Amino acid sequence: MMAGTFLGYERENGDVGVRNWVGIVSIMDNTNPITRAVCNAVQGTLPITTLFVRGQYGRDLEITYNTIAGMARNPNIASVVLIGLEGQTTEEIARRIRPSGKRIEMVTVQDMEGGTIGAVADATRKSARLAIAASGLRRKQFPASMLRIGVECGGSDTTSGLSCNPTIGRMSDRLVDDGGTIIISETSEFFGAEHLFAQRAADPEVRQKFLDRVTGLEREAMSIGMDIRGTNPTPDNIRGGLTTIEEKALGAMVKSGSSPLVGVLDYGEAPVRKGLHFLAAPAPAVENMTAMAAAGCQMIFFGTGVGNPIGNMVSPTVKVSGNVNTLRKMPENIDFDVTDILEKGSAVAPIGDRLYDFALQVASGTRTTSEVLDQRETAISRFGATI
């Protein structure tokens, strides 16, 4: 098959965006209202918010800093306005973004005349200038090898592992064959099937690193006496016919296709080579997609059985479903229908090839349901207590 191409926006560091937003970034939760006010005033901007930072420390704070900066570095962001309470914390984020070559403007509330009113006014002026500059960029043709796609599932049921997830897996193989990058995550979703996925590791080091992440999380849960039954599979998974975590894992991991596993990433870490990677991050959709966006995924493909409408703020999220009831009840939240696999006995491969073509269309500007309906959210996982 011929390698695919798409129309994207070239960045200063050689990355290619599939969207062209100015990122308005809250450095901590107390500046979120200012960020939202600016985005309401300036078209072409995107709010990147957080719920903590103040009082975080150690590894937990470092991960949060890196994740906020990672979302701002995402290729879909053309330039950035950082909105902070004070200068030192704001600079912590700015220095992590600068290597990307993006233009950065900063607003710190405590340094402004007029408090939040002055901060909104200053940030609005700066954002408007950046939005006008970004609008001058034009899409160019690029090979699919420039794409980095995250694969996710949520609201899973028996149809997920039989239809939408294998279809996403076919798309994943097509992208890797074309020289692109796939990132699969949700560490706990591999419980019970990790040994099968580990067999696909490109070398013993990658294999052991993957197993360490999965078994480490399992040991951590067991060390505090946690019984994950009822937590994973979730109640909606169980209603959908998934009875054990092993059953869920077998269906979830097929989203990755059949390519070799070439790398293992920690929360929000970006890959340095092409191919299939595993990202160690919590399974809940919003947290997981936030980590994927921080890892530089330009898009996320999300398989859902009983339905899950949420998308990521930075990475356009494509909802894929093979459950005919879900397509009937919430068609406005599904981007790609694969119900023919179970309803008509259609083969996965040709439908997966059509999904790959659709991925290139979305990369070229076709908008997703979660974008159009603004069903998008950000949540950075916590790894420690707040002081």
Number of domains: 2
Mean pLDDT: 94
Q: Which secondary-structure class do the elements indicate?
A: alpha/beta
Distance between the termini: 56 Å
Tell me what the structure shows.
With 387 residues, this protein is an alpha/beta fold. The protein has two domains: 115 residues, Succinyl-CoA synthetase domains (Rossmann fold); 235 residues. It has a seven-stranded parallel beta sheet with strand order 10-11-9-8-12-14-15, sandwiched between helices. A four-stranded parallel beta sheet has the order 4-3-5-6, with helices on both faces. Helix 5 links the parallel strand 8 and strand 9. Helix 2 packs across helix 3. The longest helix has 21 residues. The model has no long low-confidence stretch (mean pLDDT 94).
